[in-house]
Specification:
alpha+beta, Arp2/3 complex 21 kDa subunit ARPC3, Heat Shock Protein 90, 7-stranded mixed sheet, two-stranded antiparallel ribbon, 9 strands, rod-shaped, disordered C terminus
Length: 475
C-alpha cells in the first residue's frame, strides 16, 4: 500500500529528477553500510530518505527507503539464486519494516516541526533528532518482535544488547539528512554533489576503517589465542617438570640414603675394633661399593647438568680400538659380577675395531651398560659382552639374563629420570644413566638400541661408525 500510494504521489512533486537522483543515491550508498557488533548496521541511505521527508513528504521518503532496502537484499542474494524464496520473504519483511519506520518518522518530523515553528532554531533541529530516533527504534522493535516470535528471546535483552548503537544511528540519520536537505533546497542538483558526496565518501571511509580495525582485532584475537595456547602448553610442561623434579628428588634421596646408611652402619662396626681380618676385609668391600654408588649418582647429576645446558657435547676425539676398550672395561667389572655370582663373559683378545671418538666418554658408555647388566641380573645369571662389525659400524652388544624390561616401558627407558617401575627396589639408581649413554652415543654419530623380554633378559647394542677394520688385533 505504501508503494502504491507513494508512486501515485510522484505526479504531484515539483522536481521528479531530484527525487530519482536521491533514490539512486540511497541505493548506491548501500555500499557504505558499516556493520558494528552483531547485526548492528550504520548506513547513509536512511539519511537520504530522511532528507526526502523535508524536501517532499513521508510517503516519498518511505518509497526511497523501500527502494534502497530492496536493492540491498537482492544484491546480497545475487550469487545464490537458489535461495530466492528466502530472499523474497526477506524483501517483503524489510520493505514493510523500513517503509513503516520511515513513514512514522516523517509524520513525527512534520508534526514536531509545525509544533515548534518552521522558522525557529528548535523547529529546524529537534525534529531531525526526534524523527531519526523514531525511525531507529521502530526498525529495532519490529525486528525484536520477529525474533521474539521465532526464537522466544526476551525483547528487552535484545534492546539492551543493541542500545549502544542508538546514538550513532540517530546522529548519522539526523545530521546526514539535514545536511542533504539543506544542500538540495539551497543549491538544487548541485547541492547533492557539493554536500552529500563528501558524506558518502566519509561513510565509506568509516566502513573501510571499521573493517580494517575488525581484521586487526581478529588477528589480535588469533595472536592472543596462540599465546594463550603456548602459555597453556608451557604451564603443562612446567607442571610436568615440577612433577619430574619431585620424583627425581624422591628417587635421589632414597638411593643416596641406602649407601650412606651402609657406610654409617659399617663405619660404626669398624670403630669398635672387635672384628677379625676377614670381617674387616668384607666390610671394606661393602664400603667401597657404597662409595662407588654415591660417586655414580654424583657423576650422573653432573653429566645431566651439562646435557641440559643445551651446549653441544665436547668430544676429545682420537682413533682407538673400541674392542680393546670393551675388554678393559669388562675386566674391571669382573669382581662386581663375581660378588653376585654372575658370570661375565667377554673376548679377552677381540679383533680390532678402530673408531674415532672420545675414548673416556665411550668408556663411560660401556661401563654404564655392563654395570647396569650386572646390577639388574639376579644371582647365578650371566652377562655377555661382545663386539662385531655391521654395515661398516662397530657394534657393542651387552646381553644379560636379568629381569628384562616390560614391552610398554621400552620406548621410555632412555628418558631422563626414568626407571622401570618394577626395578626401582632392585638396585640403586637415578634414572639418568641410560639418558646420558644415549646422548654420548648420538654425539659420536652412533645409535643405541635395546631388545628385551621380561624375566628373560635384555640386549643393548651400541653402533658407532668404523674407522678401519683391517689391522691385526691388539694383544
Amino acid at each position: 500500500m505504501l508503494i502504491v500510494f507513494g508512486i501515485s504521489q510522484l505526479t504531484t512533486y515539483d522536481s521528479l529528477l531530484i527525487f530519482f537522483l536521491l533514490t539512486i543515491l540511497a541505493i548506491g550508498s548501500q555500499i557504505t553500510t558499516t556493520v558494528l557488533g552483531e547485526d548492528v548496521m550504520v548506513d547513509v541511505s536512511t539519511a537520504v530518505a530522511m532528507s526526502v521527508v523535508f524536501i517532499y513528504d513521508p510517503f516519498a521518503a518511505a518509497l526511497v527507503s523501500i527502494c534502497a532496502t530492496t536493492a540491498a537484499v537482492v544484491s546480497n542474494f545475487r550469487s545464490n539464486w537458489q535461495g530466492w524464496e528466502r530472499a523474497a520473504t526477506r524483501v517483503l519483511f524489510n520493505i514493510g519494516m523500513v517503509g513503516s519506520a520511515m513513514l512514522c518518522a516523517g509524520v513525527v518530523f512534520q508534526y514536531s516541526r509545525s509544533l515548534l515553528g518552521e522558522d525557529t532554531l528548535l523547529g529546524n533541529t529537534l525534529p531531525w533528532l526526534l524523527a531519526a530516533l523514531v525511525n531507529d527504534q521502530i526498525n529495532l522493535w519490529l525486528l525484536v518482535g520477529i525474533l521474539h516470535i521465532q526464537n522466544q528471546v526476551k525483547p528487552l535483552d535484545i534492546w539492551h544488547q543493541h542500545k549502544w548503537a542508538i546514538p550513532i544511528n540517530v546522529l548519522v540519520i539526523s545530521v546526514g539528512g539535514g545536511i542533504l536537505a539543506l544542500a538540495v533546497t539551497r543549491f538544487d542538483i548541485l547541492g547533492i554533489a557539493i554536500f552529500f558526496l563528501p558524506v558518502v565518501l566519509s561513510a565509506y571511509s568509516f566502513r573501510l576503517y571499521v573493517n580494517q580495525t575488525r581484521r586487526q582485532m581478529e588477528r589480535l584475537e588469533e595472536l592472543v589465542a596462540e599465546r594463550t595456547n603456548d602459555l597453556s602448553i608451557a604451564n603443562k610442561e612446567l607442571a610436568e617438570l615440577h612433577k619430574t623434579k619431585d620424583a627425581y628428588l624422591a628417587v635421589l634421596t632414597h638411593d643416596m640414603r641406602t649407601p650412606l646408611s651402609s657406610i654409617k652402619g659399617y663405619a660404626s662396626v669398624l670403630s669398635k675394633g672387635t672384628l677379625s681380618a676377614d670381617q674387616q676385609k668384607h666390610i671394606s668391600k661393602i664400603l667401597t661399593r657404597s662409595q662407588d654408588s654415591l660417586m655414580e649418582i654424583v657423576n650422573n647429576i653432573l653429566d645431566i647438568e651439562k646435557l641440559q645446558s643445551g651446549k653441544p657435547i665436547e668430544l676429545d676425539r682420537t682413533d682407538f680400538d673400541l674392542a680393546y676398550l670393551v675388554t678393559l672395561v669388562s675386566e674391571t667389572l669382573v669382581g662386581q659380577a663375581a660378588e653376585k655370582e654372575i658370570a661375565l663373559h667377554f673376548d679377552p683378545a677381540p679383533d680390532m675395531l678402530m673408531v674415532n671418538g672420545d675414548r673416556e666418554k665411550l668408556k663411560r658408555v660401556i661401563m654404564n651398560l655392563v654395570s647396569n647388566a650386572v646390577k639388574y641380573t639376579d644371582e647365578g645369571g650371566s652377562v655377555h659382552v661382545s663386539t662385531r662389525i655391521s654395515d661398516n659400524y662397530a657394534v657393542v652388544d651387552v646381553t644379560d639374563t636379568g629381569f628384562g624390561i616390560p614391552t610398554e616401558e621400552l620406548p621410555y627407558i632412555f628418558d631422563r629420570f626414568r626407571r622401570v617401575k618394577g626395578h626401582q627396589h632392585l638396585a640403586v639408581g637415578t634414572g639418568l644413566g641410560l639418558a646420558i649413554v644415549k646422548s654420548l652415543v648420538e654425539a659420536h654419530g652412533g645409535e643405541i638400541n635395546v631388545t628385551s623380554q621380561e624375566n628373560v633378559g635384555s640386549t643393548f647394542s651400541v653402533s658407532l661408525p668404523c674407522q678401519d677394520v683391517s689391522q691385526p688385533a691388539l694383544s
